[in-house]
Predict the 3D structure of the following.
Amino acid sequence: MNNSETNIDSKHITTKVLYSMKQKGEKITMLTAYDYLTAKFLDQAGVEIILVGDSLSNVIQGNETTLPVTLNEMIYHTKIVQKAVKNALVVSDMTFMSYQVGTKEAIENCGRVMKETGCNALKLEGGHFIAETIRRIVEIGIPIMGHLGLTPQSINKFGSYKTRGVDKEEAEQIFSDALLLEKSGCFAIVLEKIPSKLAQKVTKALKIPTIGIGAGKHCDGQVLVTHDMLGMIEEFHPRFVRRYMNLAKDIRNAFKRYIKDVKSNSFPTDEESY
């Protein structure tokens, strides 16, 4: 396979590169990975940011929410993703209650993830209530990506996965929080499931990039869960997910063909034997 097919010679992505991309109007791509091979394929394809999301709680562990995944589990998955990546910026989610209790504990946990995984940055959910903690974490040299709008770790508070920022008060809070997160030192902010016009307003107001998921086309970049866009998750198909494959069907068919071949004794053949 040549370099043009794998994008091996791509530039290494840093937070500075992402900032420059926003200034140039170049869109940023971000997808999730939880294992070595997926991370390798994403990196070779040229994705700028690989997120080791706490969504692994849903798509890998089969949980209903992101809350059950532990810090140790995130560290494990981030370590194996980082091994595969040569160019992309690897961002790891901080898990529920790993940074909310207090600044001291947040710094210790964030420092542990950075040291043990070798990732490039971390992502924290929330606005004004977490801004001071983010400021302190950034001060000691850890790049932080913010996350506003629908924040899955707060699902029990929200009570549903409905669009956030629809009413004026919440929209104003999201906008205010975005400005505060930028001031606190975030290098980018994920905007999840908020109205497109609100995302556009936030994106125009910030110098740092916004990464949208269900937030319209005006964000500086887009992110999807890889398992969603490959069509591996059949039970969950929100309108913001564009499926680029129907991998669930293809995988099942491959398994069925294998079972049929083994049971009919057509696999292995003499050529497939030693």
Q: What stands out?
A: The radius of gyration is 20 Å. Strands lie at 28-32, 49-52, 89-93, 121-123, 144-149, 188-192, 210-213, 221-224. The longest helix spans residues 168-184.
